[in-house]
Amino acid sequence: MEEVEVVVAHSQRATLRIGDVFLKVDGDPAHADLEVRAMAMAPIPTPAILWREPPALAIAAVPGKALGVLGEPSAASPAAWAAAGAAIRRLHDAPLPPWPGPRLEDVTAELDSECAWLLANAVLPAEVIRRNREIAEVALGPWKPVFIHGDLQITHVFVDGDEVTGVIDWSEAAPGDAMFDLATLTLGHEERLDDLLAGYGADADRDVIRAWWSLRSLVASHWLIEHGFDPDAPGCEFEVLRSRMQEP
């Protein structure tokens, strides 16, 4: 009998693994609708859909292993990171998905709201929040929308040797800022940015990527705390925010 592994579980959704099958259960069926559509459009390897019975979606495991995990050094080779960069570039060069993406004004409003919550609850020193809010401003300029994954965490990109074998969890895919995907993948792994961009291309804006590191960490921390995750774990969001204080 196969063991049931809880990959992630919180009040909004849960993902279970049973052998080579991942079962995703989401309270909002629109997330699965979008995920299925995005995977069909993406020009890079994605998991095979086995069946769908709302609110559940079953997908096949992809070969290989994740590029890394947040809070630990990535064991993947520079060539594997470059391959991930090349795959992301193919995604960003693909036709836009036909649904709306994040609006700049909504991103700005969420950032301000989350910074206010962090300050009110004193979960970080005020100067850390202020400095990162200042850095995040660089990401709030107009962007040219591209097809982004939208939640390109390091655990969502799988490699086998130096080859990308699959990218999972597409429920946040939308038109958006290309630098957001690059920042999400390298969050907490800033030392691998050069390897990633070797495959992506030299036209990436490093200042905007750094700004998204701050912005994403500021915005995500409240949600993580409320859902039982620890943004203060080694290598995670609070460490990312504190590390910005060392920059000029």
Please explain how this structure is put together:
The protein is an alpha+beta fold and about 250 residues long. It has one domain (about 65-245): Aminoglycoside 3'-phosphotransferase, Chain: A, domain 2 (Alpha-Beta Complex). It is about 40% helix and about 20% strand. The chain is built from eight helices and ten strands. It has helices spanning about 30-40, 80-95, 105-120, 125-135, 180-185, 195-200, 205-225, 235-245; strands at about 5-10, 15-20, 20-25, 50-55, 55-60, 65, 145-150, 155-160, 165, 175. The strands form three sheets. A five-stranded antiparallel sheet has the order 1-2-3-5-4. A three-stranded antiparallel sheet has the order 6-8-9, with helices on one face. The chain has a two-stranded antiparallel ribbon with strand order 7-10. A hairpin with a 2-residue loop joins strand 4 and strand 5 (about 55-60). Helix 2 (about 80-95) crosses helix 6 and helix 7 (about 205-225) packs across helix 8. The longest helix is centred in the C-terminal third of the chain and has 21 residues, at about 205-225. It is globular and about 50 Å long. The chain starts with a strand and ends in a 5-residue tail after the last helix. The mean pLDDT is about 95.
